[in-house]
Amino acid sequence: MGMWSLGLGAVGAAIAGIILANTDFFLTKPEHATVDHLEDADLKTTLGDEKTFKAKTLWETSGAVIMAEAAELSSLKPQLDQLGVPLYAVVKEDINTEIQDFRPHFTGDIFLDEKQAFYGPIQRKIGVLGFIRLGVWQNFIRAWKSGYQGNMNGEGFILGGVFVIGSGKQGILLEHREKEFGDKVNTESVLEAAKKIVVEK
């Protein structure tokens, strides 16, 4: 009887753990970014001569769609080009050939954010419990089928997001924070937000 109850208790704990891991219960709630927080971020170019510049230059005159670690937005590049709104990727690290391996999957410019301003103001990590989330496995399979394999180097637990930032003083028009690895933003929402950007001629 004691072994049965111990076994049932272990099964119950495992089931409870899986259920809790598939909710947002243990996930740090995102703190919304502000333009003040993002515009002062130091970004580095990743092609040719390495140059450092302030992030606000990316959206000052034309606004921008900026993603932290997601390639699917490349499908919007033709529509964004018609609007005059650039598409950028900001990555948190460049280990070995990581950025070069990412380039075929993204059609915009890629910049390095070593201080990870675009991953804050409060960094959110999913941890190893993320690997028992159903959505994570679905996203891994989707990425693998599309040819993107990623790597096992560096800090892989920090969650990213997408920002649509208006020109001048328009501010942040859309902010999407990942809830798990590969959590995609609604591309129609991104496009609608981008249409609100006033592009300075």
Automatic annotation (TrEMBL):
GO molecular function: antioxidant activity
Short name of one Pfam family: AhpC-TSA_2
Keyword Cell wall biogenesis/degradation found: no
Keyword Ligase: no
Record key words, sorted: Antioxidant, Cytoplasm, Redox-active center
GO cellular component, one term: cytoplasm
InterPro entries: PXL2A/B/C
Location in the cell: Cytoplasm
PANTHER family recorded: PEROXIREDOXIN-LIKE 2A, PTHR28630
Family stated for the protein in its record: Belongs to the peroxiredoxin-like PRXL2 family. PRXL2A subfamily.
The protein's name in its UniProt record: Peroxiredoxin-like 2A
Protein's organism: Astyanax mexicanus
